[in-house]
Design brief:
By secondary structure, this protein is of the alpha+beta class. Strands 2-3-9-6-4 form a 5-stranded mixed beta sheet, with helices on both faces. Strands 1-7-8 form a 3-stranded antiparallel beta sheet, covered by helices on one side. Helix 6 packs parallel to helix 16 and helix 11 packs across helix 14. The chain has one domain: Cytochrome p450 (Orthogonal Bundle), CATH 1.10.630.10. Helix content is 48%, strand content 9%.
Length: 472
């Protein structure tokens, strides 16, 4: 655990020797509505008026937003000592009884067991599949470009993301069409995606009421339908076991077979399949669309990316044989992805509830309050980033090296840091390499964004692709 050394954890009824101050700002009844309407504006306005730590009533009760690095460090690393998960009850219900959040005593053990599916040799083995599916989809993009037809950015990226991820996570070759889903409770990709959307819409329902009249009720029914689907997928996979698993579900089933009384119960596997496909699909789609949008607005960045890629591929075996070593050499590409996540963070990254009162830097955080570590605050602070309103990938290059620990937090931190971060960034890099190889593109005007619960470009935003001369 990496908490600030001078965090003062108070026992029940204990008062510090020097009276601390409360976080600034008076919470308002309208805070939840204001935050949901535009999280960026809510965070920026309060940062300007009150600084990087301030009180709200977002999602009920006192909720303190924190953006300074030391306060974020305190929030991320107090689990089991002075914090616990503090998500709304509707969200916790949608995550399910067997999510990593529900059993803090088993969290580390479960996460350690799941991690091999997203790192190391398994992650490296995913790359050829990523290559193949991306290449198939970009042929469609080329045909649209040849007709001078604008490309709807988010729907096009979403199709790539889903067709890459479903086979890697579940072992279902959905990239080959709906025939791969025949005989399952949800029999088409369209219906599966629709069910996931209903599921996600229920995460922040205002009432934990299982009625089709409420977003939560509809979402919970979608969750049950998705669990039934995952159960059927798992049963199908068990009828055709493989010795060396090549996907996330296969890894879990192999570990369960080796140790039937270990971490991987049937319920945990079903729930993890449900959550991992949902989280990875939404995360990758949002990141890829935002990266294409940002790079398309900065032609000089596009030129630097293409020059770096040309230099790296000259010393490797080319685009058709991308490896983790290839990706590691693309430092400027990595910087553009980080800068995209800094400028357009998709959501807050941690919600904790204080189980004890603590004091840090003269500020009292009271037992029972919630803490939200907000990248929209941390990533906009001039103490963390030079000219934070500018899109400037150079800030993440070694000579500047901005974005230190607890300042750049797109994937959270502490024990609840995003499990699939490496998978998301690897897929983003492989997609970026293929795009840079095939296309130039322009992003006309400013995109409109869906603001909550994840920030994402709206579906109607188009881009114009131009096939590079070598591919015409």
């Amino acid at each position: 655990m990496d908490t600030p050394s001078d965090v003062l954890v108070l026992s029940e009824g204990e008062a510090p020797a020097i009276a601390p101050a409360a976080p600034p700002r008076c919470p308002r009844w309208s805070d939840t509505l204001a935050y949901i309407a535009d999280p960026d504006q809510f965070c920026r306005q309060n940062l300007a008026r009150h600084g990087p730590i301030f009180q709200t009533r977002v999602f009920g009760g006192t909720t303190v937003f924190v953006g300074s690095s030391r306060a974020i460090q305190m929030a991320f690393n107090g689990d089991g000592d002075y914090t616990e998960i503090g998500l709304p009850p509707t969200t916790m219900a949608m995550f399910g009884e067997y999510s990593l959040f529900q059993r803090p005593d088993l969290h580390r053990q479960r996460k350690t067991a799941l991690r091999p599916g997203f790192t190391g040799s398994m992650l490296a083995a995913y790359i050829p599949h990523m290559q193949r599916v991306i290449a198939q989809h970009l042929q469609t993009w080329e045909r649209m470009s040849a007709r001078d037809a604008p490309l709807p950015l988010v729907p096009s990226v979403e199709k790539v993301s889903f067709d890459v991820l479903a086979p890697l996570l579940l072992g279902i070759p959905v990239d080959q069409g709906d025939a791969a889903l025949a005989g399952l409770p949800i029999a088409t990709k369209t219906d599966l995606k629709r069910c996931y959307k209903t599921f996600f819409d229920g995460f922040y329902g205002l009432l934990k009421w299982r009625s089709p009249l409420t977003a939560f009720g509809r979402g919970y029914q979608a969750r049950e339908n998705l669990i039934e689907f995952m159960r059927a997928v798992i049963q199908r996979r068990r009828r055709a076991p493989v010795e060396a698993p090549t996907d996330f579900l296969g890894m879990m089933l192999a570990q369960q077979q080796d140790n039937p009384k270990g971490v991987f119960s049937n319920d945990l596997i079903e729930n993890q399949c449900l959550l991992q496909l949902w989280a990875s699909h939404y995360e990758v789609t949002g990141l890829a669309a935002s990266w294409i949008y940002q790079v398309g607005q900065h032609p000089e960045v596009l030129q630097c990316l293409r020059a770096e890629q040309a230099a790296v591929l000259e010393t490797s075996q080319g685009l058709n044989d991308i490896t983790p070593a290839t990706l590691k050499q693309l430092t400027y590409l990595d910087a553009t992805i980080k800068e995209t996540l800094r400028v357009l963070p998709p959501s807050s990254t941690a919600t904790r509830r204080l189980t004890k009162s603590v004091v840090l830097d003269g500020v009292l955080y009271e037992k029972g309050w919630s803490l939200i570590a907000e990248p929209r605050i941390a990533h906009a602070m001039t103490t963390h980033f030079t000219h934070p309103d500018q899109f400037d990938p150079d800030r993440f290059l070694p000579d500047r090296n901005e974005g230190g620990p607890y300042e750049f937090i797109p994937f959270g931190g502490g024990v609840h840091a995003c499990l699939g971060a490496q998978l998301a960034t690897t897929l983003m890099k492989v997609l970026a390499m293929h795009l840079l190889h095939r296309f130039d593109w322009q992003c006309p005007g400013k995109a409109q964004f869906v603001q909550f619960p994840l920030k994402q470009i709206k579906n109607n935003y188009p881009i114009q692709l131009t096939i590079q001369d070598v591919h015409k």
